[in-house]
Amino acid sequence: MSDTLAKYKVTADVKSGIDARFEPDHLPDHYRPERATEDSSGVDLRADIERPTVIDPGESTLIPTGLHLELPSHLEAQVRPRSGLAYKSGITVLNSPGTIDSDYRGDIGVILINHSGDAYPVNVAERIAQLVIAPVVKTHFRYENSLSDTERGEGGFGHTGQD
């Protein structure tokens, strides 16, 4: 894990979108959250580890990224799997999506799980997940004695059948 911290302050407004400000020029490239393409929803998160870490089949581990954020209270960050890593290697984010609250200032860690039958080495600075910034709707809950009726009602998992 690196001695330096990558700290970003994220700002947002409806017209100009979200702006993540980056100050230090001396940090390694893997600290710089970048989109793979201009229209990518998320930025890549990389493993901030000193040496490769092996995840055995069926096991999970917490991988640090070295990234710290400051988000406005109306935003959250979501840690999501990389689809290629999941499809090709069976590696995904255990608590997907992982939620990063706006008041959290620590390292963004990624809990990876190995669903494959083979051990998987996570390499230094490997792209392990993606980070998506999303709006948060602040809600208030009010107790009610009853709820309105709907066609579905309380029909739960699988109640519509298989087609």
UniProtKB/TrEMBL annotation:
Q: Does the keyword Nucleotidyltransferase apply?
A: no
Does the keyword section mention Metal-binding?
yes
Query: What residue spans carry the Basic and acidic residues bias annotation?
Result: 21-38
InterPro entries, per the entry: dUTPase, dUTPase-like, dUTPase-like_sf, dUTPase_trimeric
What keywords is this UniProt entry annotated with?
Hydrolase, Magnesium, Metal-binding, Nucleotide metabolism
Q: Which domain of life is it from?
A: Bacteria
CDD domains the record matches: trimeric_dUTPase
Give the enzyme's EC designation: 3.6.1.23
Catalytic function, reaction form: dUTP + H2O = dUMP + diphosphate + H(+)
Q: Name one GO molecular function term.
A: dUTP diphosphatase activity
Query: To which pathway does this protein belong?
Result: Pyrimidine metabolism; dUMP biosynthesis; dUMP from dCTP (dUTP route): step 2/2
Annotated dUTPase-like domain residues: 33-161
Could you say which residues bind substrate here?
R82, S83, G84, N95, T99, I100, D101
Co-factor requirement: Mg(2+)
Question: Tell me, which GO biological process terms does this entry list?
Answer: dUMP biosynthetic process; dUTP catabolic process
Transmembrane segment boundaries: none
Tell me the enzyme class.
Answer: hydrolase
**Region Disordered, annotated ranges:** 21-42
**Family assignment?**
Belongs to the dUTPase family.
**Function noted in UniProt:** This enzyme is involved in nucleotide metabolism: it produces dUMP, the immediate precursor of thymidine nucleotides and it decreases the intracellular concentration of dUTP so that uracil cannot be incorporated into DNA.
Matching entries from HAMAP family are given as: dUTPase_bact
- Name by which UniProt lists this protein: Deoxyuridine 5'-triphosphate nucleotidohydrolase
Instruction: Provide the species name.
Output: Salinibacter ruber
